[in-house]
Predict the structure of histidine kinase.
Amino acid sequence: MKKLTLSLIAVILFTIYALGWGLDELFSQYQSNDQETINADELSPYISLGRYLAKNIDQQSNTQQFVDSWEDTQQLSLTVTSLDEFQLPMSLQQSFNQGEPLMLESDENISIHFILPKHQQVMTLVVERSLVFKGNDKIKITLTLVFYLGIIFILFIWLYPLIRDLQALKRGAKVVGNGDLTHRINMPKRSYITEVQDEFNRMANRIETLVSDNEMLGNAVAHDLRTPLARLRFGIEMLQDTDDHIKRKKYENRMNNDINEMEKLVDVLLCYARLEQNMVAIDKHELNLLSSIHQCVDAFKTPDNNNSWEIEAVSPPYLVLADEKYLNMLINNLLKNAVQYSKSKIKISLEQVDGQVHFSVEDDGVGIPRHKRQDLLKPFCRGSDSNEITGFGMGLAIVDRITQWHNSQLFIDDSLTLGGAKFTVIFSQLAKT
C-alpha cells in the first residue's frame, strides 16, 4: 500500500502544478492579446462618447460648470484641465492637437483625453477597467472549471488501473468462493495492489491445500482406522467365544498391538494437524545441523538395523536458524524413510553453497518415479512397495510442513551414487558466524 499512497500523492501534486501553470500561462496570453483587441473595439463606444462630450463642452461658455453638472459614477467620471498643464511628448502632441484622442492605462482605469481647442483645455473621460474588460470573468470561470475537470480526468486515468485490479480481485474472490480453488489472480507487475494479490494467492493456495488434505485425511483415516477396529472387534468376539487361557492371551496381545497402532495414528494426525493449522510455536535459534544429524543417526544404529551409514560433510560449519524439536523431527522422518526403503546403504550429505546449507539423504532402494514425487508429500501417500512397509505415509508430509515453517525447500531426486531416492532440504536461514 506504500506504493499506492506515494503514487497518489505524486499524481495530485503533479496535476495541480502542471494544470495551474498551464492555465495561468494561457490566461496571461489571452489577457495580453485581449487587451489589444479591446483597445481597438471595446473602447470605441467610450471614444465616441468622449468626442461628443468634448464637442459640446467646447461650445459652452463655462466648461467647468458643465463638468460639475455631469453625474459621476463609480465606473465613469469626467474632468477638465488646462492644456498648459497637460504635458505630452512631441511625438504625441501633434496628433492630439489635431483632435485624436489619447488613451492612457493604469491598473485601475483607462483615461481617454480629448482636446478642447476653443478653450485650450483637455477633457478627460475616466473609464474603470472592469467596465471594459468585463469578459475576463467568464474566462476565469471557464479556466477554473477546466482546472478542476483536468484534475478529475487525470485522477480517473490514475484510478482506472486500480479499479480494474480491484474488479479482478473481486472476480477472483467470487470464483474461489464458488468452489474453484485452483483459480489464481495474475495482475501486472506495476499494479498498485500486487501485495494484496500475493496474499490472496497464498490464501487460495492454503485453502486448496487444506481442503485437499482434509479429503485425503478423511479417506486415509477411514481406511487406516477401519483395519485395526475390525481386528479389535474380531478379537473381542474371539475372547468371548473361548476359555482357553493361551488363546485369550494371544488375542489380548493382538488387541494391544491394534490399540498401540491406533494411538500412533492419532499422534501422527495430531502432529500433522498442529503443523498444518499453525498451532505450533517455532522457537528458532542457532543450531549445528551436523551435530543434530549425528545424534539422530546414532539413534537408528541398533542391532536389528543392518544398514551401512555414510556421512559426507563439505565446507563446514553448518549453522542454521531452526527449532531444535522440529529440526530433529525433520531429520528423523527422512532417516526413517530411508531405512524403510533402502536395501543396505544410506548416505547423508551436507554442503554449503552460495550462503545456503544443502542437507541430503540418499538410499539404495528402488527409487521414486518422477510422476509420484509430489504425491508423496501429501498425507497418507506411500511408495510403490508400501504394502511391505509399515507406517502411515505421514513422514514426508510432516517434513514438507516443517521445511515450510523454516522457509526452506524440499526436493526429491534420483540418487546418482546409490541408485535409489534422494531427498534434499535447502536451508536459507543461516546463523551468523
Summary: The longest strand covers residues 345-353. The CA atoms of residues 210 and 276 lie 8 Å apart. The chain has a mean pLDDT of 80.
